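With this grant's support, we have settled on a layout for protein records. A representative record follows, to show the layout.
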Amino acid sequence: MSALPRDRDEPAPAPVTELLRARRAAGSRPLERDDGARVALIVEGGGMRGVVSAAMAAVLEREGLTDALDLVVGTSAGALNGAALLAGAAGPCADAYAADFTSRRFINLARLAVGRPAIDVAWTLEYASATLDEDRHRRTLSNPIELHCVAVDVDTCEAVDLTGMSTRETLYSALLASTRLPYVGGDPVEHEGRRYIDGGLIDPIPLGPALAAGATHVLVFQTRPLGVPRSSPGGLADRLIVRRLHALNPPLVDLYRGRIADYERVTADLAARAAAPECGPPWVEVVRPPRGAPTVSQLERDPARLRAAAEAAVACAEPRLAGRGG
C-alpha cells in the first residue's frame, strides 16, 4: 500500500458503498458532482467466470447505484460486463451467461482443429434477445460515465487503458481487444493502429488504470472465491498458449508465466487497502464470493454451475450494496 495514513484529526472516511448510496439519495449525476470524489468500479473478468461480476453488476443496477459511479474499469469479460452495466443491461447480461452464452456458437473447442478460434466474442456483441437488446451499445456510448477497457499491447508488452470510444466500431474493437485470449481467442485485435490481446495477461483486476484515471474511491468486483488462487491450464493447452505468445512477441511468455504471482499480489494489496480505510485515499471496498462458493472455469458451459455461481455472487453482493451489512 502506497497511501499515507490520514491525519488523526480528520474524520474517518465513509466506505465506498456508503458514498454511492449518499450520491443516490442526493440525486447526484455524472459530470455534475460537487463532492470532490471520483468513484471507480473495477470489474474482473475471466471468461465465463465473468458470470460472477455480471451478477454483482446486476445487483448494483437493481439498487439504482449505477449513476453514482464516475468510471467503470474492466478487463476481459469484466469490460463486457462494464459496458452492459452502462447500457442498463447488467441483469440481462448476467442471465445470458447461463443461457445462450453456453451455446457452441460462442464456445466450441472443436473449431481449433480446423484453425478457427474456439471463442467468438464478436458473436456476443452482435447477440440480441428480448431482454438483451441490440441498442445497448448506443446507450453505453452515450453514458457520461467513462468506460475503460484494459488490454495488452502485443508490441510493447504493456497493459493499456482503452477509453474515450465514441463510435460503435471503436467500442467493439476495444472490447474485443480486452477479451482476445491468446490461442483460443484468435489473432490479436487491432484498435486504433495497435495490436492487442487479453488484458488479463497483465492486469486482470485493473487497480492501476483506475487510480491513473483519478479514482479516489474504488469498488472492486472479484470473480474468484476467497481461497481460490489463479491457476494455469497445464498440459498441452499451456504449451500451445506459450508457443502462440512466443510467436507474437517472446517477452509475452514471461508475462504469462508470472501472471499467477502477480494476481496474488494485487489481490493481497486490495484486501489490505480494504481493511485499512485510515490509509486512504484511495478508499477501496472489495466484493468477492466467500470461501466455498461455486467456482467456474474460463470456458464453463454448464448452465447449472453458472447459475449457482451467479446466485452466490448475488448473495454476497446484495448485503454490501444495499447497506444491510455483510
